[in-house]
Structure formats: structure tokens, C-alpha cells
Amino acid sequence: MALRLHACFRGLGAQAAARAWPAATQRASASITPWRTYTTPANGGNSQPPIRPGDPRYGGSSAHEGYRRYQEEAQRRNASGLLYVSAFVIFFLGSSYAAVPLYRLLCKTTGFMGTPKTEPTIRDAETLKPLEGHRKLRINFAGQVSTLLDWSFKPEQRQVSVVPGETALAFFKAYNNSDKPIVGIATYNVLPDQAAPYFNKIQCFCFDEQQLDPREEIDMPVFFFIDPEFADDPLMDDIDTITLSYTFFKASGR
Fold first, then answer.
1. Rounded Cα distance, 239 and 138, in Å
2. Per the UniProt record, which residue ranges are transmembrane (predicted)?
């Protein structure tokens, strides 16, 4: 009898639990807060969730419209970045190409780094004439060629003597030792460096491409003078010898 009563009560308990389970499940579901991702700012204040494509705050009422606006904004950012990078590259390349001619212009105008001044200066007969009574200055000439250039190059005279304001003419001789035409280009400098601003060349062959045919020989003139202001510079008092030197290189790409 006791066993029958136990089984009866157990069956009644199972039926009651089955009837109560759905209601308990609904109450538990309602009490759980949906999961969200929030970004906690550094200052500890409240923060909104990050904007995602399709969010109404992105300007679109639908996921498709929001994603389209998201793509357009990304493309604008990429275009701006590409524009900045392109401008930097163009500026860098332009500066590289302009550096050499600007450096040459600086040297020719100021005599910087031992480069003779070749910029024309307006002078009349009174300002460009030999300074009588000034000591003679010895002008030495030197010539050499790059190992890649199959030429012979040397001055036809080793030195000349002039006074400030006196014009002088010197010649260099170049000879092509090879059996094919070669184009060369010359650079030059003046020693000592501090005398370079006063060394003025009226005519020369520097920085101009020179083509010599096989076994051809030519004379190259240099017409120059020492500026009369040389005599007024106390730093020039101990300078009696000036050297004009040329070096020929094979022209690039020729």
C-alpha cells in the first residue's frame, strides 16, 4: 500500500513540474539582458557602441544604404592618402633633379667650392684693365681624364702670368684615342678655394658636351681674367699662385 502511494505522489509531482517549466523558462529569458559590445572611454564616461554598416547613425535607413556610404567614405580616405603620397614623391623627385643645376648656378655665381665665376659682369674699360704696379700672379693649368674615357687631355701651356684686371687666353688639347666617336664633358675647379670668386672665365668649354671622332684632336680655348677686386681683399695678400684644373668625363648615355 505504501509503495502505491509513493508512486502516485511521484507521478503527480512530475506532471506539476512539466506544467510549470514553460512559464519558468519565459521568466528567466525575460530577465537576461541581450549581449552588447560597448567601448569604455579612457575618461571613464559613457560611450555608445561603435557605428557599424547599416546603423541608422551612418545615414542610411537600411543595411544596404549604410554599407554603400561606408564604402564611399573609405574610398575618399584612400584617395586622400594616395594624393598626399603622390605629392611627396613628385616633390622629392623634382628636388633631386633640380639639385644639380641649382648647385652649379650657386657655384658659378659665388665661386663656392673652388668653382670659377662664369656669370657675366658688366664692366667698362675703366673697371677692367690691368692694375699697374700689382705683383704678378702665376696661373697654373692642369688637365686629366676619367678612367672610363679613352681620351688624352692636357694644357698646351703649363702656366701664364697676369695681374688683376688683365685678360689672358689659354688652350687645352684633347685627343680621341679610340676607333669610335666619344662624347665627353668637363668639370673644373680653382685652387686655392678662396681665390675662386675672383677667377672669372669669359669663354670656356666646361659643362658643354664635346664629341671627338676616332683619332680626332681639337684645341679648346679658355679666356679669363682675375677680378681687380682681388687686390682689395687682404685675404689674398699671401696668394701668388692660382691653379685652374679640368677633368673630362664620358658623357652619360653617350
1. 10
2. 82-103
State how far Cα 162 lies from the chain centre: 43
User: In DSSP terms, which residues pair with 167 in a beta bridge?
Assistant: 225
Radius of gyration of the chain (CA): 45
pTM: predicted TM-score of the whole model, two decimal places: 0.54
The DSSP line for 196-230 is GGGEEEEE--TTS-EEE-TT-EEEEEEEEEE-GGG
| Structure confidence by residue, pLDDT tens digits, 57-112 | 544 456 667 667 777 777 777 777 777 777 777 776 665 555 555 555 555 555 45
Nearest to 212 by CA among 188, 248, 242, 239: 248
Contact present, 231 and 225 (Cβ < 8 Å): no
Q: What is the DSSP string of 48-80?
A: PPPP-TT-GGGT-SSHHHHHHHHHHHHHHHHHH
3-state SS, residue 245: strand
Residue 234, helix vs strand vs coil? helix
CA distance linking residue 4 with residue 130, whole number of Å? 146
Identity of the residue numbered 241? T
Buried b (16+ CB within 10 A) or exposed e, 65-83: ebeeebeeeeeeeeeeeee
